[in-house]
Amino acid sequence: MAQAATxxxxxxxxxxxxxxxxxxxxxxxxxxxxxxxLLVLPxxxxxxxxxxxxxxxxxxxxxxNQIVGTVLHRTVPLLAQWDERSGELPDETLFxxxxxxxxxxxxxxxxxxxxRRLNYEKPGFSGLFRKxxxxxxxxEPPYREAFIKIDKKWGDxxxxxxxxxxxxxxxxxxxxxxxxxxxxDSNEIIRKDENNxxxxxxxxxxxxMSLFITFMCLVLAYPISYLLSTLSVAxxxxxxxxxxxxxxxxxLVRTSAWIALLQQEGIINDLLVWVxxxxxxxxxxxxxxxxxxxxxxxxxxxxxxxxxxxxxxKTIPPSYLRAARSLxxxxxxxxxxxxxxxxxxxxxxxxxxxxxxxxxxYITPALVGGQSGxxxxxxxxxxMSISLNWGLAAALGSILLAVVLVLYFVYDKxxxxxxxxxx
Length: 423
Description:
Helix 11 (199-230) packs antiparallel against helix 12. The two termini are 63 Å apart. By secondary structure, the protein is mostly helical. Mean pLDDT is 86; it is low at 1-9. The protein is built from 21 helices and two strands.
C-alpha cells in the first residue's frame, strides 16, 4: 500500500518549486482574472456612475414622496385615522398637531417645500402654505377655527383628502399625471379634460417623428454608403470627410444654420421665389413647426446611419454580385436578393442609433420646432429646469425609457439583436 501511494505521488506533476501543477495553474488563472477585472474596473465604474445610478435615481424620483410625511410627521399619523367619507373636517387634535408641525417647519424653512409638492397636484397649495407659515406663530386654540380664519381653504374637505392621499412615502401621482389622468372627488383616477391632455399626444408625436426620421435617414444613407463602399479608397476617404464634417461643427451652429435656410425670408424661400415656384407673398412656412424639426434632425443624425452602413458594406466582397449575375440574375435582382440581406446588420445598428438619439432630442426641437414640432423631451427638460417638478419629469422619462425598451424587445424578436453590427 505504501508503495502504491508513493507511486501515485510520483505521478503528480509539479513545478520547479515543488508546487503541484494543477494548483499553480489555478493560481495563475486567478491572477489573470484579477488583472482583467482591474482593466475593466474603470469602465465599469464610469458606466455605473453615469448610466445606472442616474436611471435608478430617476425611477426612484418618479415615485418618491417623503417630504409630506417627513415635515408633517405629527399630522400624517392622525390623518390616516380620519374618515374622509364622513363629510366632516378632522378633529381639533389633528389641527393642533398641524399647528405644531407648521411652527417647526416654518423655523426649519421646509413648509414651502410641502406646499410646492402639493401644488403640483392642485394649484393654490403653495400660496396656502406660505400664508399659513407667516401667521402660524401667533395661532392659538381652538386651532380649527384659527386655521380657517387664516384661510378658508383649510375648511375644504378636498384639501384634506389630497394631503391624506399624498402623505404616503411613495406615490403614483406623477405617473397618473404623465398619462393625462387625474384624481376625482373620491380619489378615483379619471381622464383629464380634452384640452388638458398633452403628454400622450406628445408621446405619440415623439414616437412617429422618431420613426419617420429614422426611415428617412436610412433612405438617404443607403445609397451614400453604397457609393462610399464601391469607390476607391482615396475617393471614399475624401467623401467620408464630408459625411463627418457635421460632427466637427457645433450642434447649436448647425441648428441656427437651418433657421437661416428655412425661415420665410431665408435662402430656400428666396430661391423658390426667384425660380417662380412660389409667390413672394405666399412663402413657405418651414421653420418653427414640424417640418423644421424633421429637416434639422435628419441632417444632424444622418452620419449615425451612414457610418454603420458603410462599415458593413465595405466588408461585402464585390464577387457576390458578380457571382449572382453570372448565374442569371439581373443587376436589380442581384442587389436586392444578394447584396441587401448582407447589409441587415448595418441597417439594424444604424436604425437603433438614430432612433434612440431622435427620441431623446430636445435642443433642436426647442429651437426650430415651435408648437407643432415640440417633443416629449422638451417637456421633460421644462419640468427639470423651469417648473422644478422633478417627479413628473422622472415619470415622463421612465415612460419614455419603457417605450424604448419595448421597441428594443420587438426589434430583437423580429430582426435579432445578434444581427446588429457596427462593422
